[in-house]
Amino acid sequence: MSFKERNKTVKDYRSQYKSWIRDFFSKHEDEMICASDILERMRSDGLTINQATVYRNLDRLEEAGTIRGHRLCDKGEKYYQYLSAGHDCPHHLHLYCKSCGRVIHLDCAFMKNIQSHLQKDHGFLLDCGYSVLVGLCDECRKKEGENTCQ
């Protein structure tokens, strides 16, 4: 096999992985997913891939604006969220359920009031695209019987 043929094969694998990850995120757009979850799912789908390749592809998708990474305080890993065309993610806050992993796009006037208050009264310009409020969604709260702020 020539170098050109081997190089084409390597590029095909790379684009296959990147496409798989992009498709996976598009099917799970209201979830935050970490690299280890992606790696596990890819392997369970029969793909032979290593952790470095997953991270490299996540970095490329983040650079392209397809996904956005978040570091959550109680989690060691970086979590990624799909940026779909229907959501204006850079301009609103997100709620993240620490139990089920669901992401809720919080695009309401009340949050704009909070942003305005933070800037006016505290001199703090909030970067909404990277702002995530962590707690429990209604379903998980009911299952776990929690109703107070922790």
Derived structural class: alpha+beta
Q: Unreliable segments (pLDDT under 50, ≥5 consecutive)?
A: 2-13
N-to-C span: 61 Å
> Taking all residues together, what is the mean pLDDT?
80
Which fold name fills CATH's third level, the topology of the largest domain?
Arc Repressor Mutant, subunit A
| Morphology call | globular
CATH class of the largest domain: Mainly Alpha
Overall tally of structural domains: 2
Helical residue percent band: 40-55%
Number of strands: 6
Order of strands, main sheet, comes to 1-3-2
SSE pattern, N- to C-terminal = HEHHEEEEHEH
CATH superfamily of the largest domain: Winged helix-like DNA-binding domain superfamily/Winged helix DNA-binding domain
Question: Rg, please?
Answer: 19 Å
Care to describe what's here?
By secondary structure, the protein is α+β, with helices and mostly antiparallel strands. The chain has 2 domains: about 1-85, Arc Repressor Mutant, subunit A, CATH 1.10.10.10; about 90-150, Dna Ligase, domain 1, CATH 3.30.1490.190. The chain contains 5 helices and 6 strands; from the N terminus they run αβααββββαβα. β2 (about 65-70) and β3 (about 80) form a beta hairpin. α1 (about 5-25) packs across α3 and α2 (about 35-45) packs across α3 (about 50-65). The radius of gyration is 19 Å and the shape is globular. The N and C termini lie far apart (about 60 Å).
